[in-house]
Specification:
By secondary structure, the protein is α+β, with helices and mostly antiparallel strands. It has one domain. A five-stranded antiparallel sheet has the order 1-2-3-4-5, covered by helices on one side. The termini are far apart.
């Protein structure tokens, strides 16, 4: 007699499911880390852009240092004052040293003058409500006056562009 079976046995389906589960268990963390490293690379690029823009601002405005975080409100800031009374980092956007962009929608927050020449720090939560960035929420980068970049909080090393 010939056995004509049409389909898979339960054992075959369980083995395939276990193999797919093992591959997903190993692959998903690597994928998520790759995504975070990519976001960190973007943060380094924007941080270096801000550091260079701030250097140009200081050449044009010696003795008028800026200090604070760059947020979306900087996009509406229009007063470009030479040697301002308040050290508002929004002057980099208002004076066209940096283009307007969605500063609050990214994975990192950016600041000038605090903790270094410029810095980019991973947000504790993602731009969407309820998204958590653990274990990468301590990542960040500081940029010095000489243009150097140093990782903070276990972030990957700064890429060389």
């Amino acid at each position: 007699m010939k056995n004509n079976r049409k389909g898979f046995t339960l054992i075959e389906l369980v083995v395939v499911t276990v193999i797919i589960g093992i591959l997903a268990t190993m692959g998903i963390p690597y994928y998520l880390k790759t995504v975070e490293v990519s976001k960190a690379g973007d943060a380094v690029g924007i941080g270096q852009l801000l550091a260079n823009s701030y250097r140009m601002y200081l050449v044009d405005n010696p003795g008028a240092p800026l200090n604070g975080q760059i947020t979306d409100t900087c996009n509406t800031y229009t007063a470009c004052a030479l040697a301002p009374a308040a050290p508002n980092p929004c002057l980099l956007v208002a004076c066209n040293y940096v283009a307007k962009q969605n500063w609050g929608g990214g994975a990192y927050s950016y600041s000038i003058g605090a903790g270094g020449f410029a810095s980019s720090i991973r947000r504790k939560t993602g731009p969407s409500p309820g998204t958590n960035t653990t274990p990468y929420s301590s990542w960040g980068y500081d940029f010095s006056t000489s243009g150097g970049c140093s990782p903070v909080g276990g972030a990957p090393s700064c890429p060389n562009f």
